[in-house]
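Exercise 7. Given the encoded structure of a 296-residue chain, write a plausible sequence.
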């Protein structure tokens, strides 16, 4: 449009907004009583605070401000559900503030919904759906938002929610990270171990299976068919590598769009399949101070 490329969601979706949703938390007395007040519970005790853990120690190196009472960690949550007992899927992007008593981190008074993605099916990637949220969260982490928490201050203050984790199952994580998905040969986000396509014996089609836990599997793409086990250090893939792969794929598709040649599009598609990325990760495009993608 007007010489500019426009990225739009495949489906319309309802975006509530980060500041609007998070602001509602401070209307709850229980949340206000706990936020920022339960950080000193040591590791090993029942309900120990994540603020005493190893991950938080690393986060403090990247974002020293997180130890201040006007900063809190925030975890994004992404999942889909089927409300009609059919394949019709609705997506929900939510968040929870980690800066409460450990045993209460999953309670409703510390949890918000940022956006709802209607069906009937899941999008192939979450980039365009997450873009406004990640952009707004990045701004809030840097500049804060005005809140009132009587248990901490009698006056309004600037609160900085810092997004540091994404909680998602494997399919949702792949969509959020803009990866090709779980049905490809290299489905892991942390290593380049290759799966093996196994045909179904009772019907058409098949699936990629992952072996290599007791017997080595030939790694044909990068190691000249050397047999390797899961966990081999040479297979590790860093976040920097994924960012580079995403940029290469995005550049290839941009080149294909500019040239209009089918051969360039084909090359971009082959590159996507080989590298396992659909393009740049939204968390790399719009930088939050620190983000860990966690798998559960």
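Solution.
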């Amino acid at each position: 449009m007007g010489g500019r490329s426009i990225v739009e969601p495949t489906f319309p979706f309802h975006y509530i907004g980060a500041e609007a949703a998070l602001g509602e938390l401070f209307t709850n007395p229980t949340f206000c009583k706990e936020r920022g007040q339960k950080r000193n519970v040591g590791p090993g005790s029942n309900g120990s605070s994540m603020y005493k853990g190893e991950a938080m120690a690393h986060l403090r190196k990247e974002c020293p401000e997180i130890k201040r009472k006007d900063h809190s960690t925030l975890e994004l949550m992404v999942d889909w559900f089927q409300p009609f007992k059919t394949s019709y899927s609705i997506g929900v992007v939510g968040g929870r503030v980690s800066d409460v008593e450990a045993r209460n981190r999953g309670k409703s008074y510390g949890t918000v919904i940022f956006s709802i993605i209607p069906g009937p099916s899941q999008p192939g990637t979450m980039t365009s759906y997450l873009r406004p949220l990640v952009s707004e969260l990045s701004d809030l982490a840097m500049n804060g938002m005005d809140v009132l928490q009587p248990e901490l201050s009698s006056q309004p203050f600037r609160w900085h929610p810092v997004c540091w984790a994404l909680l998602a199952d494997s399919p949702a994580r792949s969509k959020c990270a803009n990866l090709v998905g779980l049905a490809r040969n290299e489905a892991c986000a942390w290593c380049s171990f290759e799966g093996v396509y196994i045909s179904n014996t009772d019907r058409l089609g098949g699936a990629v299976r992952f072996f290599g836990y007791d017997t080595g599997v030939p790694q044909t793409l990068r190691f000249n068919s050397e047999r390797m086990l899961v966990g081999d250090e040479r297979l590790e893939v860093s976040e920097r590598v994924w960012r580079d792969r995403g940029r290469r794929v995005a550049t290839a598709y941009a080149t294909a769009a500019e040239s209009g040649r089918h051969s360039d599009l084909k090359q971009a598609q082959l590159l996507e399949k080989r590298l396992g990325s659909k393009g740049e990760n939204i968390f790399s495009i719009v930088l939050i101070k620190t983000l860990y993608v966690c798998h559960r």
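Remark. The chain has two domains: 14-178+283-295, 196-280. Students should compare their own answers with the one above.
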